[in-house]
Amino acid sequence: MSDHRVTMAEIAQAAGVSVPTVSRVLNGQGHVSPRKRELIEDLLREHAYQPRISRKRPSARLIHVVFPEIDCAWELEHIRGMEPVARDAGVGLVVTAAARIVPGPTDGVVLAATSGSRRLTDELDRRGIPVVALDPAARELTSPTVGAANWSGARIATTHLLGLGHRRIAMIAGSMELLSSRLRCDGFQSLMGDSAWVEHGEFTYESGLTLGLKVLGGAGRPTAIFAASDNVALGVYEAARRLGLRIPDDVSVVGFDDVPGTQWVSPPLTTVRQPLRDMGRLAADTVLRLANGDSLADHVELGTRLVVRASTAEPNG
Known about the structure:
Blueprint lengths: L7 H8 L3 H8 L7 H13 L15 E6 L5 H17 L2 E6 L10 E5 L5 H9 L4 E4 L10 E4 L1 H14 L5 E5 L5 H14 L4 E4 L4 H13 L6 E4 L2 H13 L9 E6 L12 E4 L2 H16 L7 E4 L2 E3 L10
Parallel strand pairs: 1-2, 1-3, 3-4, 4-5, 5-11, 6-7, 6-8, 8-9, 9-10
Antiparallel strand pairs: 10-12
């Protein structure tokens, strides 16, 4: 940060805080610990930070929402949470997948399940556009984040299976590139210890089917599977059907998300509910309030809970 005009995002990254936290220090606002405030002030002086000349932009009346891809009910539930917030504020939603640049004017951007490409985040910082990370892919973000209690949610699911008497439990995890997947895996392993059986895949039906066939078709198959998403769990259902296994008589299955439809499959799926609509609602509200210059909490994590249905039971025999 020596040969160019240092940005607020670079100060935030060096201090290990969010951009709004640096902004609060610059504007003399509260809600910053004395230790962090002193560190940020030292960095601002050290790098001779000069704020850009503020020019109040007219509102674009638009929020951009960027998903890595759009292919399941997970994204739809987030959008359903955002839509009434945007409608009440009189702004529109522009939903895109895998965007590397945000075209045209916008009041703010929600980056969902991704930290965004460097090109995109640099552009947003240059344009001074508020950013909120929804279900972020990484911890090291300088923008405010909205997520769910993934670690404790995985422990709830694992505790449920252990309480039923299961000891041979396999987990089919999502990509370790995603923070939510790593936290769910860590929660499972924190209870299973050295006996943790984890198969790494993706948050997809195809991954659940492929790995379900692998673990259920081999010797010493598990009596229960913790699927790291409902899509994975549905793939496990199909794997069990192909192998002639019954759920929950031969194998219990727990999912994660509680997307619409999990209560209608046969048997209805026991799953960990994360409040997807509430997360979308909070992300949209946060980005609008940032656009308005409000001071907000840097990171918010919403609770998860177990929804017990008919896909889990005591191990047979």
